[in-house]
Amino acid sequence: MSTPQSSAPEPRTYRSTASLVTGALLLALGAWFGVDAIWRGDGRTPWLALAALVLLVPLVVAYTLRPAVVSDEDRLTVRNPFRTVTLPWAAVAELRSGFTNEVRSDGRTYQLWALPVSLRARKKAARAQMRDAVADPHGATPTTVSQPTRSDSDQAVEDLREIAERRAAAPSAQGPAVVRWAYEIIAPTAVGAIALVVLVATG
Fold first, then answer.
1. Which is nearest to 120 in space by CA: 13, 22, 18?
2. Is 60 left (phi over 0), alpha (psi -120 to 50) or beta?
3. Which distant-in-sequence residues (6+ apart) come within 8 Å of 89 by Cβ?
4. Strand, helix or coil for residue 18
5. Where are the residues of the annotated region Disordered (predicted)?
6. Using one digit for the tens of pLDDT, what is the confidence trace for 120-167?
7. Any idea where the domains of the chain sit in the sequence?
8. Are 100 and 117 in contact, with CB atoms under 8 Å apart?
9. Whole-prediction pTM
10. Cα 73 from Cα 89, distance rounded (Å)
11. Residue 150 CA neighbour count, 13 Å, CB half
């Protein structure tokens, strides 16, 4: 008699709303001031502004818009500022929450940038748990929780941990971790930095 496979999880993407909003605002401000300096600046100012934009825009994108954690039935994909880590579920050794949310694989630790830890949210969730415990110390009466008893990022890590446990033995979820550097971010950042240094040094 064969053992039925656990149901495959729906693909899901985790991102930080605060980071997305911050990134959009920073890009808008950078475009406003940068284009104005390029259009109206005199002498070397337009070139300095252009070099600064080439340097800063990829960094803003890397730290605010790029980070994401994507889970599907076969793998966990962690997109951090300068690299993307693809982890088949069998390669996930541990998912843990501390001062940062992290995943361990083959003795290496990768931070989940898209799931930042909020100590304030944790304290709020802990207070909600304490109120529930005081209201029903023996847990005998089902209650409707008005507030979450776990922060959003901690809950996301717990969900990912459960998926990893269910899918680790699946044939399609086998394989080693694969790390790819984000050269589309690194290359323009390096070009902008070099151009800015040259312009300042020769000014």
1. 18
2. alpha
3. 74, 75, 76, 163, 164, 167, 168, 170, 173
4. helix
5. 132-154
6. 655 564 555 565 555 555 555 554 444 455 678 888 999 999 999 999
7. 8-66+182-203
8. yes
9. 0.80
10. 8
11. 9
pLDDT in tens, 51-73: 999 999 999 999 999 999 999 99
Helix (H) or strand (E) holding 105: strand 101-105
User: Please, which pLDDT band fits residue 203 given cuts at 50, 70 and 90?
Assistant: confident
- A 10 A CB-CB count for 142 gives 6
- Spatial distance between the Cα atoms of 108 and 103, rounded to a whole number of angstroms: 8
Position 108, amino acid = R
Residue 135 burial (10 A CB sphere; 0-12, 13-18, 19+):
exposed
